[in-house]
Specification:
Two copies of one chain form a homodimer.
Chain A (H helix, E strand, L loop, with lengths): L1 E5 L3 H12 L3 E6 L4 H5 L8 H8 L3 E3 H7 L2 E4 L6 H8 L1 H4 L3 E4 L30 H8 L4 E4 L6 H4 L10 E6 L2 H14 L3 E4 L6 H18 L5 E5 L1
Parallel strand pairs in A: 1-2, 1-4, 2-3, 4-5, 5-6, 7-8
Antiparallel strand pairs in A: 6-7
Helix pairs in contact in A: 4-5
């Protein structure tokens, strides 16, 4: 399928390349396609021009990526998701499925301390709401499916790389959209995709990131996941 | 050891009985030892007088339970934990170990919807803080260890009752206190107790409750846990 990825950091790059490897036609969207934007260093990821050369995946603006995609992926930081989607444009988003991977991590100085594995959420995007819910509210025609936000994205696109079976979670209001996303996740190797119901299920998976981040520091690796055991 | 449990709801009753079954001398603390308090119905738990008759465990005030305990257990709802501990009294708490099981669930009408597995945290006890941190701040001499707050308490005191191995988490500033709590948890059957470092590690485990609550509705049972897989 045609997939437009909104966000060109480590999440967008990794998921974009993984979808392309499964035969999908991916366009990666970034804020501006300029020399400066393509060359700038990216946290935990390579400069975009190097990534584009290596993968041969087209890099375009948020708007062009959104127009290209039959399915969209929100791979931005949660705090700027609504800004990025506004640049993509309501007309380009329409009623498309949006796979929302974002977590509402507060990146303001002092709110996050990687050395201790300590992070806080953006208050306006947590507690009684979530990034997923706010996107759904802003784009009521779109079919938002929260997914892939409870593990490192490298694990997200290759869950079988771990030493045991783990679970992943989806949430969204549209059953057809969730079935489609479940198929895409199974193609990455997920055997158990737990459907948490409507989009308010995003709250729990987004707030899990706080435990995830501390576990990353405790375990000394971002390469892990969780299995629900009854 | 002598254990004083602060809180007489389902968490206090269950953990109190479980510690007694392991040979500890437990006193269960409640707000007031009156006919009315002992007879009142309790959510997911029996009236205190029935529990006391069945278990033969003494029921006393928060203050008396705190005085009795060499180790204290905070088994209150997170939103009232500081009030309950104030009733127990700073002199009775002293430098004792406090095993803090509380989660900052907002029980105000509208904030919680059990039918959808939807809950919000008390804003003042989440994001950049946690119940565990606030207790440690209020009682700097005490040695707070966050524990047993990521699973149903029936699972917490009998993790081997599930169909597979699961993990539990502790966090706290005092290594000796954490070693003691780890031993108590192992006596309940926990094989893996993951130490999340200082008390700020409480944030992640407390915020996990939001995912836990949705999972409970999704899975149709409160009897489950999670295993971290590398």
């Amino acid at each position: 399928m045609k997939i437009g990825v909104i966000g060109a950091g480590v999440v967008g790059q990794t998921v974009g390349e993984a979808f392309a490897a499964k035969g999908h036609e991916v366009v990666l969207g970034t804020r501006a396609v300029t020399e400066e934007e393509l060359a700038k260093p990216r946290s935990m990821a390579v400069p975009l021009k190097d990534w584009a050369t290596r993968t041969s995946i087209p890099v375009a603006t948020f708007r062009e990526a959104a127009r290209h995609g039959e399915i969209l992926v929100n791979a931005t930081a949660g705090g700027i998701a609504l800004d990025a989607l506004a640049l993509a444009g309501k007309d380009a988003i329409g009623s498309k499925v949006i796979i929302d991977i974002a977590n509402p991590i507060d990146f303001t100085p002092g709110a996050i301390d990687p050395s201790r594995g300590l992070m806080a959420s953006v208050p306006a995007l947590t507690n009684s709401t979530s990034v997923g819910e706010e996107i759904q509210r802003a784009y009521p025609e779109a079919r938002v499916v929260k997914a892939l936000n409870t593990a490192n994205i490298a694990v997200g696109v290759a869950p079988k790389s771990l030493g045991g079976d783990i679970d992943t979670f989806i949430a969204g209001d549209d059953a057809t959209a969730k079935a489609l996303v479940t198929d895409l996740l199974k193609a990455f190797g997920w055997s158990t995709v737990i459907d948490l119901g409507d989009i308010t299920g995003a709250r729990g998976t987004e707030q899990f990131i706080v435990l995830w981040f501390r576990l990353m520091v405790t375990l000394g690796t971002p390469t892990f996941g969780i299995k629900v055991v009854k």
